[in-house]
Predict the structure.
Amino acid sequence: MPTVSRKQGRAARRRRGAIALCAVVVLLGTVAATRCLSTPDSGSVPAATASANTVTASRQDISVVLTLDAQVVASPLFNLNANTAPNANTAVPVVHAALTPGQLVHAGDPIFTQAGVTVRAPVDATFLRWLAPAGAQAPAGLPVAALQFTGFGMSATLAPEDSYRLLTDKLTAKAEITNGPGPFDCSVLTAASGDAAAPADSATPANGATSSGNPVLCAIPATVKALDGLAGLVAINSGQVTNALTLPLTAVDGSAQSGTVFVVGSSGKPSVRHVGLGVTDGNVVQITTGLRDGDVVLATPPTLSESQ
């Protein structure tokens, strides 16, 4: 019997291990089995470069429209929120207009000023109270004033996971009342929620909001005949972005403002990259920074620990 050296024995065991691994891969039906016959055992995990495991950043138009079940509510409450434009990441002092609780305001009347921008009443309403004191450093989105619409509104509930799909101040809506008028334009208001959803002397919310999601509200025009409690639909449009660089939402860790992806480089090895995120329609998300058209990323995003 020929003598086998220790080095030859180790090489033979590696070959047998590679063949056994190939057999397992073939049983699983994976096309990568063909690589086992020619790829040496390097001890490293091969990069996932198969088309089934990667996606390519590409351009398309994104239209964001959410259609929700709604209910007609009488005299709904709504808030006016802080708006620190042009720098939405900076808290800026609030300057109140001279208003007293119970005072009627008309559409276009000034309510408060912030960073040189006057926030005005979007509809005819009754001023109820201040939610942020004068001079408060209010970040964008913080409720500043509580008002009550003098008419009917369409109230709906937005699922928490869809909230960031309406992350814009330029919302439009159309609504219809079941077996009644519609469709008609409906001015989007910031529905009051939590403590701000109840009048100062009541603990009962006035917008039909529930704890299962975020309230959405739009003002029904006075020319539309509405009755409290009727069912309907509201379709909210946060606009359209043309020729946006996009990825499938499932390939990104994050869905609003910022996120991370695994970019596949020329070597075939993935690396974590931080990206800026824009609008999403729930299927794809706009990539605002961090990638170029044609960049390839893994279809599975980094975990939180991998994104560090």
